[in-house]
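Appendix B. Raw example, untouched.
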Amino acid sequence: MPLSEHEQRLLDQIEQALYAEDPKWANTVRISDPRSHYKRRLVKATIGFALGVVIMMVGVVMSLIPLGVGGFVVMLAACLWGLSSWKKMNGFGDAAPASGTAPPPGKPARRGNRGSFMERMEERWRRRHDER
């Protein structure tokens, strides 16, 4: 449902006031490409990974095992965060699951077309009974 002229005018005034008050926020909101958001997350994850390496090395040099373990956990968390951002940025996280069709007999299933763990187990069970 379209806005009336009065509502549209009010919305434009509010928008201009927000842009005038905080131009940095307005620029962030104006960006329509979600990949830029994931790029920023990827940069932050890289910085977090480097920080984790530094913390881990300080823990190793100073023989503080909890600090070294903490650095490793920071590295691991940053790596997982960065990988999830990378997948979403490149569109790999949006892929729909493949259909549950089985490959022809004698040909192994391709790794990308595999279903869930339970679907694979059910397929193995069916193949065992079909061979008998």
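End of appendix B.
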